[in-house]
Write a structure and sequence with these properties.
Elements (H helix, E strand, L loop, with lengths): L6 E2 L7 E4 L6 E5 L11 E8 L4 E11 L12 E6 L8 E5 L2 E8 L4 E8 L7 E10 L2 H5 L2 E3 L2 H4 L14 E3 L6 E5 L5 E5 L11 E8 L5 E10 L15 E8 L2 E8 L8 E2 L4 E8 L8 E9 L8 E2 L6 E5 L5 E5 L12 E7 L4 E12 L13 E5 L9 E2 L1 E3 L2 E4 L4 E7 L8 E10 H13 L11
Parallel strand pairs: 2-4, 13-15, 23-25
Antiparallel strand pairs: 1-2, 3-10, 4-9, 5-8, 5-10, 6-7, 6-9, 11-12, 14-21, 15-20, 16-19, 16-21, 17-18, 17-20, 22-23, 24-32, 25-31, 26-29, 26-30, 26-32, 27-28, 27-31
Length: about 450
């Protein structure tokens, strides 16, 4: 019943091949002995080789490795997904702990899934399904057509496709757009008739699909929806724009926006994001919205050097920059759900790194553990460390000094609530300079919730 649909690789215990000369275009894969506990001290490789003009869609329906919400860097049981044939390819995902409904879309015809189990307490394992898709799959299934901007701007009315950009669906009576990163990495999304008022009874859907390491990022340049009066605070009864994410394999509303206050930037938690616009009333002051969208791989983090061997990781070396700043993903907007980002600091032998957090808003309650469904930031002077303290909540300021010349900062969010993240200034300092900073911060420590040296 639980048999992997690939071809076993000769002289291996649990490696499988999918595709190449074996034209299986869809199927299932499992960890060894699933649904029973998988063995320890194993490494299984699942090789996917689609056709020249095909991509691979992979969905982990369930993965139960180890309980808790530890960083995947601290886990001995882990699933890595590489965007290519070998482990030298960019890493699309590092999966650990427990998850449901996690989707991955390759950028090309090859994908490698590597399952490593080295813990003393192995879990149930995983089950997943895959599908080989043609390059034009998203376009054909969305029934999209190309519409020139000059033609778009001639249209009007609630059923028009006005202002929708390069890929607009003609499949529904209401405006609808399916945007995928194959057509371009950036673009504009305009409400019907923008900047003129949108027609009453407008109902629009916008579906975004990214590939590989990409996330969808939305930046609101203009936002003015009809507001009934100041007594109506619920967006459900007014013209509104709703953001939907895929959580545990299901479409779930992340937020609703109405009125005239522009939302902060939004980032998807995976390859897909959807928008629903309901313009029930409209008025002469209802310009609608103008949104810039981006398919990004850097999570909106503009400092450091991004590493390809992790889904979201950045390195800061004192030989390249003695000081700078780091931010959470998508800062100053809401950070994405179900995400882990690591920041690695490397100084010389006589240096330490000092971090001064000038903004800190991480959803959760101290001690920031899984039982309270808390997101967290964690600091460690070793690459793997299970015992470091976690930090969450809203802090006025936070000072952190490394114990050695290396510091790892881990940000981890779950699929529940959202925060606006953090901003911190970093400096690489000699011991004498570190002692001076610690003296200053200790003298005013009553202002801070935390002031650790790790």
């Amino acid at each position: 019943m639980f048999e992997t649909d690939g071809v076993p690789v000769q002289d291996t215990w649990c490696d499988y091949m999918f595709g190449d000369g074996h034209r299986v275009t869809h199927g299932r894969l499992y960890s060894p002995r699933y649904p029973s506990t998988y063995p320890t001290n194993v490494r299984c490789n699942y090789h996917f080789h689609a056709g020249q003009h095909e991509r691979i869609k992979l969905i982990f329906e369930e993965a139960f490795l180890q309980k808790g919400d530890e960083s995947c860097l601290n886990r001995a049981d882990i699933i890595k997904v590489f965007d290519g044939r070998t482990p030298s390819a960019p890493v699309l995902a590092m999966l650990c702990n427990e998850l449901v409904g996690y989707e991955i879309l390759s950028t090309g015809p090859d994908l490698l899934v590597q399952f490593t189990a080295n813990s003393n307490e192995p879990g149930q394992g995983f089950k997943a399904n895959f599908q080989f898709q043609s390059d034009d799959y998203n376009t054909s299934t969305a029934s999209t057509v190309e519409i020139l901007d000059s033609e778009v701007n001639k249209k009007s009315g609630p059923d028009s496709t006005l202002g929708l950009g390069p890929a607009v669906s003609a499949a529904t009576s209401s405006c609808h757009q399916a945007v995928n990163s194959d057509k371009g990495r950036t673009g504009k999304l305009l409400s019907p008739s923008y900047p003129e008022p949108y027609p009453p009874k407008t109902h629009c859907h916008y579906d975004f699909t990214a590939r590989g390491r990409q996330r969808v990022r939305l930046i609101f340049e203009d936002f003015a929806l009809h507001k009934i009066d100041d007594n109506h605070l619920d967006c459900e009864s007014m013209d509104s724009l709703d953001i939907f994410l895929y959580v545990d394999g299901r479409l779930e509303k992340m937020a609703s926006y109405c009125g005239s206050e522009a939302p902060k930037p939004i980032m998807s938690n995976g390859p897909k994001l959807s928008i629903e616009f309901r313009g029930i009333y409209s008025s002469k002051l209802s310009r609608g919205f103008k949104i810039s969208y981006f398919f990004v791989e850097d999570y909106g983090i503009k400092s450091g050097k991004q590493l390809m061997e992790f889904p979201c990781a950045f390195v800061y070396n004192s030989s390249l920059a003695g000081k700078g700043e780091i931010t959470s993903p998508n800062y100053p907007g809401l950070y994405p759900r179900d995400s882990e980002c690591n920041y690695f600091f490397y100084g010389t032998k006589v240096q330490k790194v000092h971090l001064h957090f000038t903004y800190f808003d991480i959803e959760g309650v101290f001690p920031c553990e899984a039982v309270s469904a808390s997101d967290y930031v964690q600091f460690s002077h070793e690459m793997v460390n299970y015992k470091s303290d976690r930090y969450c909540g809203q802090l006025k300021e936070l000072h952190v000094t490394s114990e050695k010349n290396f510091l790892r900062v881990t940000f981890k969010s779950n699929d529940r609530l959202d925060g606006t993240g953090f901003r911190a200034e970093y400096k690489f300092l000699r011991d004498v300079d570190v002692q001076l900073i610690q003296t200053v911060t200790a003298s005013s420590a009553s202002k801070y919730r935390y002031c650790p040296t790790i």
